[in-house]
Amino acid sequence: DQSFIFQALDEASRRDLAQAAHTRRHASGEVIFTMGAPGHSLMAIAEGHVRISMLSPTAREVTLADLGPGEVFGEIALLDGRERSADARALTNCTLVVLERSALFELLQRSPKLSIRLIELLCERIRRSDERMMEIAFLDLPPRLARMVLRVTVAAPGSEARPLPRLSLSQTEIANMIGSSRENVNRCLRKWQKAGLIDLKDGWLVILDRAGLARVASLD
Ligand code: CMP
């Protein structure tokens, strides 16, 4: 119901959606599906958070996205009929609303608005991937790391929450989000701590000087 793409449906279609969908629960840490598996369903997150990631041949992980309530995943394999393009894992206990291909296609045929929302979702993901690709291709670690820290500590668009001044991700998780190693991330964070941009305590990264970090983020 909180899902942007399904808000496109009229009431009757929403009732059909509710009938066709089933819910699935996953405990924190559980694998939802793995890259390469066949996939015929789309999932909307009702509760909890899900991490979308990929493993390198040497088992290093890169995080593609962390998704929360109202967000949708699994649309790629569902739409193109191929295998899952990435791994999905529950970051917290999760409740997912699962919709099979036949039910979604029926709804898409009835609602052009739903198709457009789904296309908008794919466009948004391509934009974000392009941005990440640009950062990995052109930026050194400090501006890349600064951008990530600023990005994940800014309130979501439309939300009234103030930007969170701190970050509770581990340094390995941070490294996985920007395609770096924990050691390099640690070195950079220590430098920023000495320079008074951030503080590191009790596993938290606390932002002390947001404007300073923004200056680092804009350098290449
Ligand atoms: P699918 O390929 O079915 O399974 C993996 C899912 O991860 C994919 O559908 C998308 O829903 C999601 N996904 C893949 N790449 C990204 C990305 N770069 N950003 C956000 N979600 C992604």
UniProtKB/TrEMBL annotation:
Pfam families: cNMP_binding, HTH_Crp_2. InterPro entries: cNMP-bd_CS, cNMP-bd_dom, cNMP-bd_dom_sf, Env_Response_Regulators, HTH_CRP, RmlC-like_jellyroll, WH-like_DNA-bd_sf, WH_DNA-bd_sf. One of its GO terms (cellular component) is cytosol. SUPFAM superfamilies: cAMP-binding domain-like, Winged helix' DNA-binding domain. CDD domains: CAP_ED. SMART domains: cNMP, HTH_CRP. GO terms for molecular function: DNA binding; DNA-binding transcription factor activity. This is Cyclic nucleotide-binding domain-containing protein.
